[in-house]
Specification:
Helix content is about 30%, strand content about 10%. It has 9 helices and 12 strands. Helix 1 packs parallel to helix 5, helix 3 runs antiparallel to helix 5 and helix 7 packs across helix 8. The longest helix is centred in the first third of the chain and has 25 residues. The protein binds N,N,N-trimethyl-histidine and fe (iii) ion. N,N,N-trimethyl-histidine (AVJ) binds next to helix 5 and strand 10. Its EC number is 1.14.99.50. Catalyzes the oxidative sulfurization of hercynine (N-alpha,N-alpha,N-alpha-trimethyl-L-histidine) into hercynyl-gamma-L-glutamyl-L-cysteine sulfoxide, a step in the biosynthesis pathway of ergothioneine.
Length: about 425
């Protein structure tokens, strides 16, 4: 098989895996559930489905393929910038059968276009970028649909094996020595615009938690009055805590005996003490860190802990090396429906010994979502550029609901600091003066 044929096969596999997952997420509920609004923060599932097809049509059928539009008339309906999520149920959307037919029709054309694509030449096609971008886009919406499932009420419809159990105790924190490292990438062919270009960053020494903060530790913060103590919260965080009446992470429930439970995908289960806390906002993470006498890591600190190899001075693609994740490295790809206990992925450890950076939970960082020096929007401003400016906080590492195609050591996610329907947790860091 030639290199181009191997690339074609990898792109086809990524597109197929994304579609299989979109089908899983949309075939397990009835029409009513597909078109309903499960939260004003989310689109109806049927909007995500047709939007996936519409992006694929715009970039692969029309742009790369140079073909005639399949449905130009629906572009406006599925433009995320025209209609806020809360207004989408009222739009004259394709119904579930029409949406399924549409995405299948687009995909048929894409197979033909992929067959004939040079995968060289202009940047959009080089190394199959546009096809990989569309696979990542579908997987990102699949994770969003998974979050919609988590908000949906009713009995469980999704199933998955439980995550692996911890195999070893992990030390509390890892010391990262002062010095320069390479952040971002200029060479990863499927990296998105905001991950580029590679640039050198100098950091003072710091210490970072070996693993994400667990439910057990978070419960100590809660029991110690964490949600009532003004001094632990930032000004904006406290204002939000009050107006939103935050008392605990989303989906936590306390029973009459004072025990905490967690509702996930239609099932109520005892809170697993040793697993990463999930469904907390940036503001809650920040308050916890202050309570613990620590702080959130910056985005650069997170990436150095994940990628920098002190033996070679290089930055790796993933904590464990340059190779793609398999099921021993990280809890990714909706293989499980919850984060794994701390210590469950020793094979995923970084060169510095930091664990579970990839998978389990997205991790809030203290950094605003901003462009790297030398950033240039590609292929469209609305992927990243319109979100720069400081309203959004960066999250790193991916969750149990993130597919490997949309996750790597350089991958940047972002959201508003009040959001907690995403699969987000965090780890803490601290300064190490005099190192
Ligand atoms: C990168 C996850 C913040 O879902 O809003 C999907 C990804 N961009 N369609 C989002 C995205 C366009 C984006 N996030
Ligand atoms: Fe989108």
């Amino acid at each position: 098989m030639s290199e181009t044929e191997a690339l074609r096969a990898r792109l086809a596999a990524a597109l197929t895996r994304a579609r299989d997952r979109s089908v899983v997420l949309t075939e397990c509920v009835d029409e009513q559930d597909l078109t309903a609004q499960h939260s004003p923060l989310m689109s109806p599932l049927v909007w995500d489905l047709a939007h996936i097809g519409n992006q694929e049509e715009l970039w692969l059928v029309r742009d790369v393929g140079g073909r005639e539009p399949v449905r130009r008339d629906i572009d406006e309906l599925y433009d995320a910038f025209r209609h806020p999520r809360s207004t989408r149920p009222a739009l004259p959307l394709l119904d579930p059968a029409q949406a399924r037919g549409y995405v299948a029709q687009v995909r048929e054309k894409v197979w033909d276009i992929l067959d004939g694509a040079s995968l060289q030449g202009r940047p959009l096609e080089r190394d199959g970028f546009a096809f990989a971008m569309i696979a990542q886009h579908e997987q990102q919406h699949d994770e969003t649909m998974l979050a919609t499932h988590q908000l949906r009420s009713g009995p469980a419809v999704l199933t998955a094996a439980p995550p692996p159990r911890p195999v070893a105790e992990v030390p509390t924190e890892v010391l990262v020595p002062a010095g320069e490292f390479t952040m971002g990438t200029s060479t990863d062919p499927w990296a998105l615009d905001n991950e580029r270009p590679a640039h050198r960053v100098v950091l003072p020494a710091f210490a970072i938690d070996t693993a994400p903060v667990t439910n057990g530790r978070y419960l100590e913060f809660l029991a110690d009055g964490g949600y009532r103590r003004r001094e632990l919260w930032s000004e904006r965080g406290w204002a939000h805590r009050q107006s939103a009446s935050l008392e605990a992470p989303q989906f936590w429930e306390c029973d009459g005996a004072g025990n905490w439970w967690r509702r996930a995908f239609g099932t109520l289960a005892p809170l697993p003490a040793d697993s990463p806390v999930v469904h907390v906002s940036y503001f809650e993470a920040q308050a916890y860190a202050r309570w613990a006498g620590r702080r959130l890591p910056t985005e650069a600190e997170w990436e150095k802990a994940a990628r920098w190899d002190p033996r070679t001075g290089r930055s790796r693609r993933f904590p464990w090396g340059d190779g793609e994740p398999d099921e021993t490295h990280a809890n990714l790809g909706q293989r499980h429906l919850e984060p794994a206990g701390v210590g469950a992925y020793p094979a995923g450890r970084s060169a510095l010994g930091v664990e579970q950076l990839i998978g389990d939970v997205w991790e809030w960082t203290s950094s605003d979502f901003l462009p790297y020096p030398g950033f240039s929007a590609f292929p469209y401003r609305e992927y990243s550029e319109v979100f720069f400016g400081g309203d959004y906080k960066v999250l790193r590492g991916g969750s149990f609901g993130t597919d490997p195609v949309a996750c790597r050591g350089t991958f940047r996610n972002w959201d508003l600091p009040v959001r907690r329907q995403i699969f987000a947790g965090f780890r803490c860091a601290r300064d190490v003066p005099g190192e």
